[in-house]
Write a structure and sequence with these properties.
The chain is an alpha/beta fold and about 350 residues long. It has two domains: about 250 residues, Rossmann fold; about 55 residues, no CATH class. It contains eleven helices and twelve strands. Helix 6 runs parallel beside helix 7. The relative contact order is 0.12. About 5% of the residues have low confidence.
């Protein structure tokens, strides 16, 4: 991949939250526990691709998405859009270029305004179309997301969940972005509606030539919609690669765990799925913890759950290239020994 293919890059981005300190804690000299929601993430989005960002709840996916959009200011690191650094004060053009579709379509919409009022306010503020074309542009947006023109006169409470998400997508598209960050866009919807929204996003990506970051904990959905996938665990990216390769032959133990958690139908007469045996790894994990404390280094964050933990896991590795596939990287000391289907 050449640098010319990149539309968005995230370099060492961190977002930490420090809770307020009570008077009592101050008197006793207690320091607040810092929540390192995102802690040193490197990520690249190519032009015209859909990048899936997966991980279990609480791993920092949504915080990273909001930091990329600009809702949170990064504690450290750099975000670049088309080579330009996005600082705390983004220009209007930079704000418009990266838009977000939120998880809960109802709470992200103003309940007091009609759809037409919300869209018109955006178009007028950003001066995207002449005032005499605002209504026409509103109708175009409704057709784009598959809603009737009559929806412009309705408020969010009058729509179903799927329709509200279409309104949220229309609001994001009103600013004519080139990058769309979809944060769990179907998790709050009925299963029967999820497929229609996923298909809509895929169609819009092709029609409008968008680059998409699709955030989800649903591995099946990510495999369906994304060309590349990044796996996140406890604020860090632990593996990236082409989606098909990553799902068929995962290189990080955590990725294997996620994929193994996807429900599958049992095949009649087929081999039974058995839980992976890990052996007695307690002493190894204790040594990893002691070594990390002595060296004041960060142990691998997955070491306390990993079935392949070794003493070398006392230091968390960066994203290392797979010797068989340089396009894929994994933060695991076993990557150099990676053979098909085997980590260690």
């Amino acid at each position: 991949m050449s640098s010319g293919d990149e539309i968005l890059s995230v370099e060492g981005v961190a977002r930490h939250f420090i809770p307020p300190v009570s008077v009592t804690d101050r008197l006793f000299g207690k320091k607040p526990v810092v929540n390192r929601a995102v802690d040193g993430v490197d990520l690249v989005l190519r032009k015209g691709e859909t990048l899936g960002l997966v991980g279990e709840s609480g791993c920092g996916k949504s915080t990273l998405a909001r930091t990329i959009v600009g809702l949170y200011r990064p504690t450290a690191g750099t975000i670049r859009y088309e080579g330009a650094v996005l600082d705390g004060k983004r220009t209007r053009a930079q704000q418009r270029a990266i838009q977000m579709v939120f998880q809960d379509p109802y709470s992200s919409l103003n309940p007091r305004m009609t759809v037409g009022q919300m869209l018109s306010e955006l178009l007028r503020f950003h001066k995207l179309v002449p005032r005499n074309r605002v209504d026409a542009r509103n109708r175009e947006l409704m057709h784009l997301v598959g809603l009737p023109e009559s929806a412009l006169g309705q408020r969010p409470r009058q729509f179903s969940g799927g329709q509200r998400q279409r309104v949220g997508i229309a609001r994001a598209l009103a600013l004519e972005p080139t990058v769309l960050v979809a944060d769990e866009p179907v998790s709050a919807l009925d299963v029967s509606v999820q497929a229609t929204i996923i298909n809509l996003l895929a169609e819009l990506k092709e029609t409008l030539h968008l680059s998409v970051i699709f955030v989800s904990h649903n591995m099946a959905v990510v495999r369906q919609i994304s060309e590349r996938t990044a796996v996140m665990y406890r604020g860090r990216i632990v593996e990236t690669g082409e989606t098909g390769t990553l799902f068929d032959d995962p290189a990080h133990p955590y990725t294997r765990l996620l994929i193994g958690s996807v429900p599958r139908l049992a095949v009649a007469g087929g081999p039974a799925r058995t839980a992976e045996t890990t052996g007695d790894l307690g002493p190894v994990r204790e040594e990893v913890a002691r070594s990390a404390a002595r060296d004041e280094t960060q142990p691998c964050r997955f070491a306390d759950r990993c079935p392949s933990v070794v003493a070398a896991c006392a230091v968390e590795p960066p994203l290392l290239p797979d010797p068989r596939d340089p396009a894929r990287r994994a933060a695991c000391v076993h990557i150099s020994q990676h053979t098909e289907g085997v980590i260690a």
